[in-house]
Structure formats: C-alpha cells, structure tokens
C-alpha cells in the first residue's frame, strides 16, 4: 500500500503565508497577502467585491482584468483567526454602488468570528473575538480592540487606543511598554503544519 | 468564579514617600528602600491598588536609575489633535476655541457614535411653497446622521447649507431651526447702533436686547461688561453704603488701600482714591440679570405627554458641552429634542518627565500620524520580566495530570509554580527574592521560594550564544518536552531551568483553606485570589565610561560600577477553591 504523507492542514507558500485548506477565499486574484500571514480554517475573504467604477485614466478597453484591482490587501505577519470574515466596504459613489479596497497593515491579529469591513487598518493592531468593524472605519496603528466591540461605520480610531463597547468608545491608551505585545512573529511560528510550541 | 490568568504587578517606589527625593547614590551598597525592614507589602490594603502596575505601564529614568509609574510621572502636552479628523490643533487655538474640535467632527448625542454629514435631497418644488424664487434652483441641504443608532439632526430640526465647517453653522442655529446671534454678531450690532445714534439708539438697543431671550453667552458677556464698569468707577453706586468707606469689596483699589494700612503707608499711591464707593448688582437684562423662571408647569405637561424614551439619560446629559445658545436652565436638559451634537474632545500626545531629575523619559514625535517615539525608556528594557506557569509534578501514584491554566487551587494541597525571569539588559544580573512565609490577609497561604538567589546571564545576541556552545540550545528545548518534566526533581536551593537570558525557579504554595469560622464576615470579593507579595532585588555591574560626574580624579576607567534596584511586586497565581 502506498502511503501518501498526510495532507497538512495548511498550505504554505514560498513567501511564508500559511493558508488553511478549509478557509474560503473568494476572488483570490484580488487578494494580496504580504508574507508570513496565517489564515486559519473557516476564514472568509471576499475578494470578489471589487471596484465596479473604473477611473477615466484607465484604458477604454474592457474594464475587467486591469492590474490594480485589489479588493483586500494584507500586510506581513497577520493572523486571521477562525471564522473571521474580511469584506471590502461598499457605498454609493457618484450614483453607483461600488466597493472600496480593504487595506491592512503588518502584525494585525483578527480574533475568531470577527467581521472586518473597514476601509483601512494600520499596523500592530489587535482585534478581539466577535468584533464587528463597520464600513469605512479607519483604525490607525497600535490599536487594541477588545472582544465583542462594535465599531460603527465611518469611525476613526487614533493610534495607541484601547477600544471597547457597543458602539465603540476609546477606553484607554496603550502604554509605552506595551508596543512589543503587538508583535506576531512568535504566534506565526506556533501555527502551521510543523508548529513550534509557544515560547513562554 | 472567573478563571484567573496569572499576573505580575509591580509597585512603584513613589508610594514609599521617603524614597522619593532622595538623590540616588549608585556607589553605596545600601538598600534602596526600607520596606524590607518595615512591614511586608500587603497587596490587599486599600492603598495598594493605586500603586501596583503591570510591567507595560512602568517607565524607567536612566539618571535616577529608578522605575517611574503613571502616578508619579510628570506629563507635558506635546500636541493636541482631534481623534476623528486627526488634524493637529495649535495650542494657541485652544485658548480661544476651547478643547473641542471646531471642524465638522461630532458625536451623536444619543449613542456617542460618530456623526457623518449627508445631503438631504429636497423634494421637487411644490407650488404651495412660500418661497417661489428659490424653487427654481435645487438647494441641497445637509444633516448629521449617526451610523450606529440612525439619529439624524433633523430630529432636532437642524439642517445645514454647506457640508463643511459645521461647527460654525451649528453655533448659529438653535434646536428647532431658529437662528441665533453669536457673540461676535451681537457685539457688531451693538457697535453699529452706537455709531449711528446717541442715547436714543442705545435705549432702543437695550430694549431690543431685553425683548430677546438672553442666552448664556450674551448673559456672560453682559455681566462681565457690567462688573468691569463697576470696578472701574465704584462711585456710581447709589446705595447708602458710601459712609462706610473702610469696608471695601475686593476690588483692586480697595485691596491696595488695605495693604497700605499694614505696610505703613510708604507705598501709598497719592493718586488712588481714598474713599471707596459701593458696588451694586445687575438690575436689568442688559446688565446681565436673568430672572429664574421657576414655573415649570409647561415642562411638566410636556413630560406627561412624552414617552420615557424621549427623555435624556444622565450619561447623555453629562456628555453635552454647555449650550451657549440657550438661556441657563435652572434644572437640566430633560428631553431628547434639546440635545445637540457633541463636538469631539481633543486628544493629546504627551511627553513624560521624571519628577525628580526632570529628564525626559518618553517623548513621542510631534506629528500626529507618526507612531514612533524619539525617546522611550520603558521599565521592560531594564528590569526582568516575570512569567508564571503552573507546574504539575507527578504524584507518587502515576504520571502528572496536564496543567490547565486557570484551574482552581485545592486548599491545603501544595502546588508548584514556575517563575521565569527574563533578563533584558546586556549585563548579567544577580537576583535576590524575598517573600513572606505567609501571605497577608485573612486566609494566609504558605509560600516557599525554593531558590531565593540566582544569577541570570546577559541578553547577548542569539548568534553569539549559538556559536559558543550548543548545549544550551538542547537544554532550552528540553524544557518544552512534556515527558522530561518528571526527570527534574524539585530541590531547595537549585534553579529549575536556565537559558540564554532567562532562569526559571519554583515556588511552592500551600493555599489556605477558605473555611469561615463562626462570627467572621462572608468572603469578600476577590479574597479567594492567591496573591503573593515578593521583594525583588537586582544587582548588576556597569562599566563606567567616565561620564559620571561623581567619579573622583583618580578613578580607573575600567572599573565596574555596581548598581542595584529593589522593588516589591505582587504575583497573582490563581483562585482557591471554596468549600
């Protein structure tokens, strides 16, 4: 009997991204992963919700297939936990309903069962479990969003804030000694087909 | 009971008032604070709560070689900015326009969510409209809409003509749509009237002012004008107090006169008026008098008719800034229809200074959008961090049960915890620990630190260490293998494990039994949490680079300088099972 090596739970790309086989990624040609990003099972990334309005400077030929059609752009060392969902936000723009790209920075941790519809998320952001980030919200760097927060649409969260509540309010500030806690390099090593045990 | 994750809180020396202000003397080997001889630190004392901080919140002053906490640090404001539009507000604007955003950033008065400006489409022109000339051009109006609770400013009757500078437009509108004159406009009108005519025009203006509602801003301006005029010319009073000239109100002229009596008259200003007239209070609305309308029957009738949800809650009322467009309400805002959009409070970027030596300990970049810091001296880079995990040793009957974090501790059964000290600095550290044998409180648990004194190696580069010897790597990896834990014996005086820049030791705890005797109070909140106070003293040597001003003339440049730091910390380990 031939013995195939067991299929790992994750697909590891050469840029170091670890994408679970059970994750649902729609429209993958519009999803940019930065490298060393972990996508856990049951994550959904909607790459099919792209801009439908093309700017006038683009070529007059067919509108599909233009190179800069990113729906979701993710930075390095991001971690998308189970059952989270990344959806580009959409609105009425010049009379037509269109979607805008969702941009995430580096070292972003998205907690389980969270729904992210923000316009942009900065670097070193921790988003807890069951968080809903409303459409076109802007989260700056070094922000900590606690569990079960609901961030209303169009909200701007400045850097170094700790945010909680429904609707979200800034309840505290990240102390100067807390910057290193946002780094996700160690967490990246604990996941995958050959997980290293967590360094204490 | 909520499961407890182990935590470490450190007490800042600022709470010990004797040590603050004493200049640090790095050459003397004397103990840093007298807590060691004094009573042991009680983490359950009511004051203790205010002096304990986790390691992330502490900063370190390099000159005093002391840790600083958010309580003792002196903060200076570097920049003010609006948290919504992220625009920097120069500090000169703060004095004139207050500490709120004056652009278009507002919060919903009902739910404190962000408001966004949206346009309202005007309905197609109706022939019955009273403004026929405007019906030809479509006129978009804008309103503020909350995206969380769907409140709209049209609910209080406010709409805007332009989508920007909403703050200025809002100052000119009252709830319900009536317009309001701002203070500037009133001043200009008064000036115009006074320029045009003499007495007759002034009388007409004052009558007109009395006829209008006097709102907070105008009332304040009128009162201020009245009082300054009274102070300048006190003899205009027409009451009978002029005979009692010595009794002065606290005006500058009377104060100086009273001071002259005490100083003997040499500083007497011959030009000052010797007789002080009396001051009177405001009498008319033009001077700032506002009669309280204590008849609230109309408000009560409205309350009878409206719904409970139409009234404003206390949090909603408290978040409203003072409404300058309405007269002073001698009660409070009661209805949701009188709530107004709340401008955002400005946020700050602050730089922090050591209170003793005034050196800057933390300084962010002044630009709002950069997140870097120019100076950032955190305690985490100077004192060892302590991480706690529970250790389950195999009993005499079989293999060890896996340790679950947050498990309740059995009373009167010894448990072991592994404390890992990580050294952040580039010199080797000598750590001495002291913990009281019994924890303070009503239910004392027995604490034994198995190795109270040990050395931690310096935090050198990973590659240096790997090149030096390979044995260290294997020993650090063996820590993670579950099977080998049983090989390690718990011995007094020996460390548990050692790594490149960390050391683990064992602490043995016998939790107390939480049985209440007859006559004792019931268990208070969090009294079942096992917390051990521990005194940590670290010593390390620094190569003196010759910059120290205290060095004598004949000092050898290579001499090692011994430095030490000591502090109390509290380790929260877990909850004890009740019953």
From TrEMBL, chain A:
PANTHER family: DYNACTIN SUBUNIT 5 (PTHR46126). This is Dynactin subunit 5. Its main location: cytoplasm. Coiled coil: none annotated. Keywords: Cytoplasm, Cytoskeleton. Transmembrane segments: none annotated. It comes from Cercophora samala. It is found in: Cytoplasm, Cytoskeleton. The lineage of its organism: Eukaryota, Fungi, Dikarya, Ascomycota, Pezizomycotina. It comes from the Eukaryota. Belongs to the dynactin subunits 5/6 family. Dynactin subunit 5 subfamily. GO terms for cellular component: dynactin complex.
UniProtKB/TrEMBL annotation, chain B:
The keyword Ubl conjugation applies. Residues 199-208 have a biased composition (Low complexity). Residues 182-198 have a biased composition (Basic and acidic residues). It is found in: Cytoplasm, Cytoskeleton, Microtubule organizing center, Centrosome; Cytoplasm, Cytoskeleton, Stress fiber; Cytoplasm, Myofibril. GO terms for cellular component: dynactin complex; stress fiber. Transmembrane segments: none annotated. Residues 18-45, 177-208 are annotated as: Disordered. PANTHER family: DYNACTIN P62 SUBUNIT, DYNACTIN SUBUNIT 4. Belongs to the dynactin subunit 4 family. This is Dynactin subunit 4.
């Amino acid at each position: 009997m031939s013995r195939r090596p067991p299929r790992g739970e994750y697909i590891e790309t050469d840029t170091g991204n670890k994408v679970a086989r059970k994750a649902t990624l729609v429209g993958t040609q519009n999803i940019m992963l930065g490298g060393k990003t972990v996508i856990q099972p049951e994550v959904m990334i909607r790459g099919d919700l792209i801009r439908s309005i093309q700017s006038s400077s683009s070529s007059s030929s067919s509108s599909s297939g233009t190179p800069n059609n990113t729906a979701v752009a993710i930075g390095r060392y991001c971690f998308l936990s189970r059952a989270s969902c990344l959806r580009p936000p959409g609105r009425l723009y010049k009379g037509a309903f269109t979607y805008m790209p969702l941009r995430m920075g580096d070292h972003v941790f998205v907690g389980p069962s969270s729904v992210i519809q923000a316009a942009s998320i900065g670097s070193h952001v921790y988003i807890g479990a069951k968080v809903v980030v409303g459409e076109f919200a802007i989260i700056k760097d070094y922000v900590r969003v606690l569990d079960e927060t609901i961030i209303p649409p169009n909200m701007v969260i400045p850097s170094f804030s700790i945010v909680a509540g429904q609707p979200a309010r800034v309840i505290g500030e990240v102390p100067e000694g807390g910057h290193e806690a946002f780094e996700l390099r160690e967490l990246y090593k604990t996941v995958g087909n050959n997980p290293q045990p967590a360094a204490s | 009971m909520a499961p407890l994750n182990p935590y470490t809180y450190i007490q800042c020396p600022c709470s010990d008032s004797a040590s603050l202000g004493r200049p640090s003397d790095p050459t003397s080997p004397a103990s840093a604070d007298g807590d060691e001889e004094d009573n042991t630190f009680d983490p359950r004392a009511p004051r203790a709560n205010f002096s304990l901080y986790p390691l992330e919140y502490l900063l370190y002053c390099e000159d005093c070689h002391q840790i600083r906490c958010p309580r003792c640090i002196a903060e200076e404001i570097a920049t003010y900015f609006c948290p919504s539009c992220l625009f920097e507000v120069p500090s000169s604007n703060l004095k004139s326009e207050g500490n709120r955003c004056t652009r278009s950033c507002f919060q919903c008065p009902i739910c404190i969510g962000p408001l966004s400006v949206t346009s309202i489409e005007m309905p197609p022109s109706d022939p019955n409209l009273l403004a026929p000339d405007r019906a030809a051009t479509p006129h978009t109006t804008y309103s503020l809409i909350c995206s969380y609770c769907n409140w709209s400013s049209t609910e209080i009757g406010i709409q805007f003509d332009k989508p920007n500078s909403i703050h200025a437009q809002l100052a000119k509108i009252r709830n319900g749509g009536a317009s309001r004159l701002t203070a500037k406009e009133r001043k200009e009108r008064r000036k115009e009237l006074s320029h045009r005519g003499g007495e007759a025009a002034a009388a007409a203006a004052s009558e007109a002012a009395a006829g209008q509602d006097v709102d907070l801003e105008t009332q304040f301006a009128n009162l201020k004008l009245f009082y300054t005029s009274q102070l300048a010319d006190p003899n205009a009073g027409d009451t009978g107090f002029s005979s009692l000239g010595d009794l002065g109100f606290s005006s500058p002229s009377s104060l100086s006169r009273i001071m002259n009596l005490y100083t003997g008259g040499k500083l007497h200003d011959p030009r000052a008026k010797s007789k002080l007239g009396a001051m009177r209070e405001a009498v008319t609305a033009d001077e700032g008098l506002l009669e309280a309308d204590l008849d609230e029957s109309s408000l009560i009738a409205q309350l009878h008719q409206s719904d409970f949800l139409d009234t404003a809650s206390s949090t909603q009322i408290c978040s409203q800034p003072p409404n300058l467009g309405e007269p002073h309400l001698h009660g409070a805002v009661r209805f949701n229809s009188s709530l107004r959009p709340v401008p955002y409070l400005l946020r700050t970027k602050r730089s922090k200074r050591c209170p003793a030596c005034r050196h800057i300990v933390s300084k962010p970049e002044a630009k709002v959008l950069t997140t870097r810091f120019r100076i950032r001296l955190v305690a985490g880079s100077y004192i060892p961090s302590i991480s706690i995990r529970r250790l389950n040793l195999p009993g005499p009957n079989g293999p060890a049960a896996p340790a679950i974090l947050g498990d309740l501790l059995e009373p009167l059964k010894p448990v072991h915890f592994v404390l890992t000290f990580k050294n952040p600095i580039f010199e080797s550290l000598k750590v001495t620990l002291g913990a009281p044998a019994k924890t303070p409180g009503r239910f004392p648990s027995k604490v034994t630190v198995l190795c109270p004194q040990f050395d931690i190696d310096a935090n050198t580069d990973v590659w240096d260490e790997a090149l030096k010897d390979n044995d260290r790597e294997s020993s650090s990896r063996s820590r993670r293998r579950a099977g080998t834990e049983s090989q390690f014996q718990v011995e007094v005086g020996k460390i548990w494990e050692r790594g490149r820049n960390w050391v683990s030791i064992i602490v043995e705890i016998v939790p107390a039994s939480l049985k209440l005797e007859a006559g004792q109070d019931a268990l208070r909140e969090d009294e079942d949490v096992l917390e051990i106070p521990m005194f940590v003293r670290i010593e390390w040597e620094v190569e003196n680079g010759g910059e120290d001003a205290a060095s004598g003339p004949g000092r050898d440049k290579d001499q090692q300088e011994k430095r030490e730091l000591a502090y109390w910390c509290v380790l929260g380990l877990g909850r004890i099972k009740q019953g």
